[in-house]
Amino acid sequence: MAKTLSFPILILCLLTFSTSDASVQDFCVADLSLPEGPEGYPCKKKVTADDFAHGGLAAPGNTSNLIKAAVTPAFAAQFPGVNGLGLSIARLDLAPGGVIPMHTHPAGNELLVVTQGTICAGFISSANAVYLKTLSKGDIMVFPQGLLHYQLNVGKGEAQAFVSFSSQDPGLQILDFALFANDLPTDLVSATTFLDPAQIKKLKGVLGGTN
Predict the structure, then answer these.
(1) Would the annotation count 110 as a binding residue?
(2) Can you give the residue ranges of the Cupin type-1 domain (predicted)?
(3) d(CA 119, CA 135)
């Protein structure tokens, strides 16, 4: 008479069967010559140590612009080694008064580390509760995925920070640009935001929007 397998042995056999044909891959360095898909870039065939190092965050970004700030990303498109790993990083440079305007990252949480200066940062929850802090060198703050948040240099000198994300490409939507840097009709913006049409047209003129 055949003996019945004990429950632990049965589970072990099932696990072995289910994983025996599974391919194990340590990494998937991005092949930037091919288009990016929903799961990231296809894997590069020939990989070197250079794919896992990146020097693009060493130099400060250009803050001579409207927001007096610069974001230098090291996402999969700039740093192929993070492809498929679920993480990335960027550098923030803010001149005095510089700001990273209200924005969201729909695909990742964000962790900010201040390395120079004084930054006022905050986010708004889905219940419209406001959480803000003034951060100095060495301070950190987290911004949950998808929530509106900002960073503002409130010090007298340059400010610098590094932000890491729980995604190789967290995505970005800046609220001001979404409203005023495109051809969304002014009357529609006014109806949905309660802003004065004249003010909307002025902001569209500043940010390059039309209509």
Answers:
(1) yes
(2) 55-201
(3) 5
DSSP designation for 4: P
> What ranges do the domains of the chain cover?
62-171, 177-207
Six-digit token string for 120: 């006022």
Q: Residue 119 above 80 pLDDT?
A: yes
Q: Is residue 54 a known part of a binding site?
A: no
Residue 93 binned pLDDT confidence (cut-offs 50, 70, 90): very high
Contact between 145 and 107 (Cβ < 8 Å): yes
CA atoms within 13 A on the CB side of 108: 21
Map residue 155 onto helix, strand or coil: coil
Other CB atoms closer than 10 Å to residue 54's CB: what's the count? 15
**Closest alpha carbon to 56 in 43, 41, 71:** 71
Question: If you search the block for the tokens 């070197």, which residue do you land on?
Answer: 48
What would the CATH number be for the domain defined by 62-171?
2.60.120.10
Mean of the per-residue pLDDT values of the chain: 90
For residue range 15-34, list pLDDT tens digits in order.
Answer: 444 444 445 689 999 999 99
